[in-house]
Every structure is written in C-alpha cells, then in structure tokens.
Design brief:
Elements lengths: L10 H18 L3 E6 L4 E6 L6 H22 L7 E5 L3 E7 L4 E8 L7 H22 L6 H25 L8 H9 L36 H7 L19 H5 L7 H6 L5 H6 L1
Antiparallel strand pairs: 1-2, 1-5, 3-4, 4-5
Helix pairs in contact: 1-3
C-alpha cells in the first residue's frame, strides 16, 4: 500500500483542468462531472448532480476507487486505463482513474433508448491522457516558492489553532504589579478591634444622671384567641327514663294474665334499690 502525500495545485492549473472537464461534459451531454481524490474529497465539479447526496456519494466512490488502485498495483500496470461503469434505471455513471490519487466521474440522466457506452469510453480515454498532463503542470513541486508559501500558511494556521486551544484549556490570570499590590493594601479599610467581653464595665461618675430606661411592655396572652381556636364541646343530652307502662283494670282482674317485668316494676312489686342493697 502506497503512502498518500498531500498534493497542492496552482490556481491557473486547476482553472485549465476545470475548462477541459466542462468541455467534456457538454460534448457528451452529461448532467454532471466530478473530479475527486481517493479520500472522496471534491476537487472540481461541473454541471448539476440531480438529487444525489454528494458527500455520501463521494465517500462511497472514493472507497471503490481505492479498490481499483489495489488491482492496478497488483497487476503492476501503473499506466492502465480503468473505467468503472454503472447503468441504472435513473442514472448512468462512468468513473475513470487518472492516477492513484485523482478520479473523474461523469453522471448521465437515463433517457429512453440505449446509452452511448462506446463513444463515452473513447472520449474519456482521450480526456484522461490530457488530464494527466494538465495535473502534472498544475501540481506544485516540493521546494518551490509556492510550496514554501503554502507550508508557511498551513504552519501559521496550525499554530494559531493550537494557541487558541491552549487559551481555552489553560486561561491566563492577569499579572499583578508590586505598585498595584501596595496601593491595594493602602486602600484597605481599617479593621475595628473586637470589644473585650471579659473586661470590667466602666462605672459612670456619681454626679452623672443616667437616662431612665423605658418600661418594657409585657406580653399578655389573649384567651379569646384560644377560644376561637378550640371547638365547642357539645354536652351529651340527658336521657329521660321511659314512662311506666299503663296497666288497665281488666288486666289486673284477669287471673290468667302474667305480669311482665316492666308491669311488675310499675306496680311496685319489684324494687331495684332493695335488690341492690341485698
């Protein structure tokens, strides 16, 4: 597996590459053209991509192109022309390998009739040869003046990001100069001494007239408040003893009538007080 190095392109070189890709897209009638690297990063685009979610599409396409690179390295044929073709009901997609790092993808909207695979294949093959030459011209060589400027800009941006992270993680406290500390001590208010509670109180002179203390008002308890809070107690009603039953004369004259307990008490035949005393 080869190491992937950071590659930078000049502005004029990328402009020439974009013009060539735009010409290819118009000639073939493609809806969109995309130039990407092996990580799925977009470099140049032309046209529109319909309703494709571009970020996910480029990531998946980059993974597929990495597998294509592995096949080229296995066959030891670095100058091979590899074309990945997808034919669907909605879109046709053609992806060509320019080198290990750069790939070109053309997206066609599917219409009625057969696709022009042969003409697209020939046009892509000629364009890949031209793009390889343009990429070499646009690539900034290591050690050149433009390369040094890019390295300096990247280094400055990296240092600035690190310093911001340090400030967020370890905020600096403002330094205090000796003069400011002395002035702050001078402006400190005086501390009043705490009175000694164990010292003897001062006795006023005999001829000094002391003020008469105001009488303190004693707190009295309001019983009316207690009465309001306590619920009224209801006294139980006294039950009156039941009236003695009335015995008719006919009942008394009847020898067969048996007196009840209440009738015997009413006639005075039973005295409860005498029975209790016994």
């Amino acid at each position: 597996m080869q190491d992937h190095k950071l590659v930078a392109f000049s502005e004029d070189g990328l402009k020439a590459i974009q013009e060539r890709i735009e010409t290819l897209r118009v000639d073939l009638g493609a809806s969109g053209a995309i130039l990407l690297d092996q990580t799925g990063e977009l470099l140049v685009e032309s046209g529109h991509h319909a309703d494709l979610e571009l970020n996910t599409f480029l990531t998946l396409l980059g993974n597929a192109m990495s597998a294509m690179n592995a096949v080229v390295h296995l066959l030891k044929d670095e100058g091979a022309f590899d074309l990945h073709f997808h034919e669907g009901q909605t879109y046709d997609m053609h992806t060509a390998r320019i080198d290990d790092r750069i790939f070109l993808t053309l997206v066609f909207e599917r219409h009625s009739g057969s696709s022009r695979v042969g003409m697209i294949w020939l046009s892509l093959r000629r364009t890949v040869t031209q793009l390889r030459s343009l990429l070499k011209q646009a690539m900034i060589e290591s050690g050149s003046a433009e390369s040094d400027k890019i390295k300096s800009a990247v280094s400055d941006a990296f240092d600035e990001a690190i310093s911001r992270m340090d400030e967020d993680l370890f905020p600096t406290t403002p330094s205090v100069s000796p003069t400011s500390s002395i002035s702050s001590l001078a402006s400190t208010p005086e501390i009043t001494p705490t009175p000694d509670i164990f010292s003897e109180p001062e006795i006023p002179p005999a001829n000094q007239v002391l003020p008469t203390p105001k009488p303190r008002r004693r707190r009295t308890f309001d019983f009316s408040e207690l009465r309001r809070r306590e619920p009224l107690r209801e006294e139980p009603l006294k039950e009156e003893p039941p009236a003695p039953p009335q015995i008719s004369r006919e009942v008394l004259d009847d020898p067969k009538h048996v007196l009840t307990y209440e009738e015997a008490r009413a006639l005075g035949l039973i005295n409860l007080d005498d029975s209790n005393n016994k």
